[in-house]
Structures are given as structure tokens and as C-alpha cells.
Amino acid sequence: MIFGKTKLEMKVGIFVFVGLIILVIFVLSIGGVKTWTSGYKVNFIFNFVNGVKHGAPVRFAGVDSGVVRNIVFFREGDGLKNKVRVTCWLRRQVNVPIDSTIWVNTLGLLGEKYIEIMPGENYNEILRPGQEINGEDPLPMNEIMKDAKKITDNLNMGLQKIMNKEGTIGKLLFDDDVYNNLDAMITDIRKNPWKLFFKTKEKK
After folding, report:
1. If residue 66 lies in a helix (H) or strand (E), which one and from where to where?
2. What percent of the chain has pLDDT over 70?
């Protein structure tokens, strides 16, 4: 009886162990993590990352090729300015030219932030494991809104000038004298088209 009970417990233990392994593989697959895929880490330096998070995708030439593994602050320069170092894991087959352009992109208008790598042309110099290059800082949303407001204000100002009969367009649209003179000139040219080719003599 004791031997039979031990054998049963062993079978249950093996079954549970196999179930845990299957569960771990399933969870890793759902999360897009492939521990058996070899790769390497590189660092991208930014002043502003606009909400990039740990685990965000990294795309190379528009293809998912890695993931953000770590984000840390560090100080640089005489003024000890804060910088952001984004450590990314890339697949082994991805070769990033040293002259590539790196920036923070967005999936949709207000979607997930991710790292975009546009390959450069100098494949003689490849980013090696542990190396770092500077990325291009994204434009903050408040700056975009400020620029949009400036454009809107300028358009409103231009429309207001037109409505007040100011400027060439305003006078052409609303000034009767300018319109009448222009209409008279066009009518005269229609009656006397030769005037288009007539050149007046300059006075000495």
C-alpha cells in the first residue's frame, strides 16, 4: 500500500510539473516573449521619451524587431543635465547602421509609444552590443497645441483683415472702386486686345 501510494504521488507530481511547464510556455507566448531567441542590447539616449514604457516594442524598418528592456535617468555635461537612457533588446539578425535615425513613434494618434529605427546607409559601421547612440526627441503635445494655436490665430487675423477690406484680397473682394477699375480694364482689353502687345515709349 505504501509503495502504491508513493507511485501515485509521483505520477501526480510529474503531471503537475508538466502542467506548470505548459502554462509558462503559454504565458510567454501570449506575452510575445521568446526566451529561446538570441539577441543583444543597445542603448538610445533621449532628452524626452514622451511616455515610452518598459516592454514597449522596438521596430527596425517598420518591422517588430525587439523590445524596451530598461529606462533610466543619468546626468551628462557640465550642467549635469538629465538624460534618459533607453536600453533595448534586438534580435541577433538585426544590424543597425551607426548612422540610423531613432525616434519615439506612436501607434495611432493617441496609441502606444514605441521606438522606431530607420536604418541608415553605412552598413560598414554597425551598432555593437552595449553601444549607444542619440535618438531624436519627440515633440511634446503642448508644443504641438501651441503651434496649432498660432496657425489658427494667424488665419483668424488674416480673415479679419479681409473682412475689414485690408490688404489686396480684402480690397479686391469688398472695395467697389478696385472692382470697378479692374472690370473696366478687362472690358477695355477685350475691346482692344492689341494693347496687351503695345509698349509705351519711355520718356527721355
Report:
1. strand 63-76
2. 68
